[in-house]
Amino acid sequence: MSSRNYISRNAKRRRCPPVSGDEVPGHPEDYDSRRAPRLKAGRARIRNRMGLASPATGTDQVVGLGLVALSLIIFTYYTAWVILLPFIDSQHVIHKYFLPRAYAIAIPLAAGLLLLLFVGIFITYVMLKNQKDTKKAQ
């Protein structure tokens, strides 16, 4: 039996199009969309088996929405503070709701330095912990 006949019989049995092309061979009534290859679903299934993906719970969604809302508020406030406020007269009442402009550089700089500090501490902690575990194993 030639491999060509085997492939064509196998393809007819599966009733789905080949993965490589956009055209469906044969008659359109032979196509069964329920049995068509689904690459994305397969990857998600593998991630779920490995424990890398889990559905978000209601609490996760609320926390995520809160973080997005907080980020949006901070972005809007900072944008108005840095970009719009210089064009408004300095005697206007809106200026009392914003810090002096010097803090517009100092606060993000301090936040970035703290972020780098905590990332460095975390990496150091993980590396030292792994080093102790490997010494115990030897």
Automatic annotation (TrEMBL):
Annotated spans, Disordered: 1-34
The keyword Endoplasmic reticulum is annotated on this UniProt entry: yes
Pfam families from the UniProt entry: DPM2
Localization of this protein: Endoplasmic reticulum membrane
This protein's record includes keyword Membrane: yes
Main location: endoplasmic reticulum
Sequence ranges of Basic and acidic residues compositional bias: 24-34
Pathway terms, separated by semicolons: Protein modification; protein glycosylation
Ranges annotated as spanning the membrane: 62-83, 103-128
Keywords: Endoplasmic reticulum, Membrane, Transmembrane, Transmembrane helix
Membrane-topology annotation of the record: Multi-pass membrane protein
Superkingdom classification of source: Eukaryota
Protein function: Regulates the biosynthesis of dolichol phosphate-mannose. Regulatory subunit of the dolichol-phosphate mannose (DPM) synthase complex; essential for the ER localization and stable expression of DPM1. Part of the glycosylphosphatidylinositol-N-acetylglucosaminyltransferase (GPI-GnT) complex that catalyzes the transfer of N-acetylglucosamine from UDP-N-acetylglucosamine to phosphatidylinositol and participates in the first step of GPI biosynthesis. May act by regulating the GPI-GNT complex. Regulatory subunit of the dolichol-phosphate mannose (DPM) synthase complex; essential for the ER localization.
Subunit structure: Component of the dolichol-phosphate mannose (DPM) synthase complex composed of DPM1, DPM2 and DPM3; in the complex interacts directly with DPM3. Component of the glycosylphosphatidylinositol-N-acetylglucosaminyltransferase (GPI-GnT) complex composed at least by PIGA, PIGC, PIGH, PIGP, PIGQ, PIGY and DPM2. Interacts with PIGA, PIGC and PIGQ.
Family classification: Belongs to the DPM2 family.
Name of the molecule in the record: Dolichol phosphate-mannose biosynthesis regulatory protein
Phylogenetic lineage: Eukaryota, Metazoa, Chordata, Craniata, Vertebrata
